[in-house]
Amino acid sequence: MDKQTRTQKIEDIINREKDNPFGMQEIPWQDELKSMQVYKIPLSYLVYNKYNGRILSRTKSLEKQNHIIDVETDEGKKQIEQLLWDSKEDRNKKTEKDLDDFGQKKVGIITRDGIIIDGNRRAMLLNRLGNVDYFKAVVLPVKLDENLIEIQKLETSFQMGEDEKLGYNPIEKYLKARDLFDVLITNNNEDVALSKIADWMGEQKATIKDLLLVMKRMDEYLDEFKYEGIYTQLDGREDQFINLTKWLETFYDTQSGKAFDGYENDDVDDLKIVAFDYIRDKYEGKEFRVIAHGQKQNHFFGDSSVWESFRDSHFEITKNIQKSDIDYSSPNLKSHLDELDNSFSALVHEKFKDNLESHYENLRNKQAGDKPEKLIRRSIESFDAIQQNHHAFGEENAQKLLEELASKAFQGLQKKSPVKILGLVKKLLEEIDISEISDENLDEARDCAKNIQRVLNDFRKEID
Q1: pTM for this predicted structure
Q2: Half-sphere exposure of 262 (CA within 13 A, CB side)
Q3: Is 35:26 a contact under the CB 8 Å cutoff?
């Protein structure tokens, strides 16, 4: 059914039943609460709104593939119905049962040309049930394209009000705020645009500003991995973007007391790149926040030496990873991009984990720098955990690190307890198993013994 036919059929219902409508409903329209008539409109006269706030990220992602959804065709209708169903399947099942048992209790809103402004999900469920052929709705006095701003205002107020927020994919509210801002800023200054969106979405103006900032970082992330416009790749990553946005807003173009002294914007750029990689690998919670969250003593970016070591190790891990070509013609782009993300994680996840854990241990040690007993005990426990019979323990790099550790321990004793060194040296010499010295190292052992004897002679002369 084309637009003209739909419009005429809906107009016929209004003219026929205007003196005896199904009911009345108060609707906020053009800054007034107006009482409007409710009609029973056949479902066959209605068209889903593909830019419905509940599925906005999905339809935009599909359109990025040049996959145009024509909601006036059977195919387009089925696509929108599937997206609406998948958007909140558990809740849809509950609502579907309620509709089956008690019918449609909440009135929808449509335009004069049959576009569903509020009630897309309910209409989809009624179509699935098939036991009712009409939709109870207020009919707005305009077609969709006759007053788009007022319709967007109404749609946002109804769909993203306090009662409906839990029914939305978290990413949708960011997209909605960004799209509304792009429309409103053409005829309003920023403050007015933010105020309007806040009113429509039932939020504070500061919250809308935060939504726009987070959306900006989300778009930057998608651009970084050539996922521009594929908003499905943001799923499950909202909290990380909220945290990253706070960090960047705190650190850019200033000298925050929450970061290491003397950092520059280039360092913040590096932070963003590192964070993007960890977001792609789906790190979250404490593991993600330790990168730059909170007071400076609690995160990597608060200590220059920890940050620089962590950052350099990270870039060493990622330097040879090639960005994969994206097949935008893939019949299931989300699955294709998920596969690319999974391939990335397979290459880096364990290395990212090791890098993060080792630097977190370093940070914890620095935090306990004035508690030497605690750190020494921690070092002993770490050493005791080593499997000394494992072949890796005998490898050159491990042995060099062990030698460095022993040297640092001796230096610590030298500063505070030099006499204890003598007792420890005596004990260590007594415990050497000569039989373990290979024939090829005997000459080196004899030279060491002579040198030790010489040092001891000099030492005795000094203290006598």
Answers
A1: 0.73
A2: 5
A3: yes
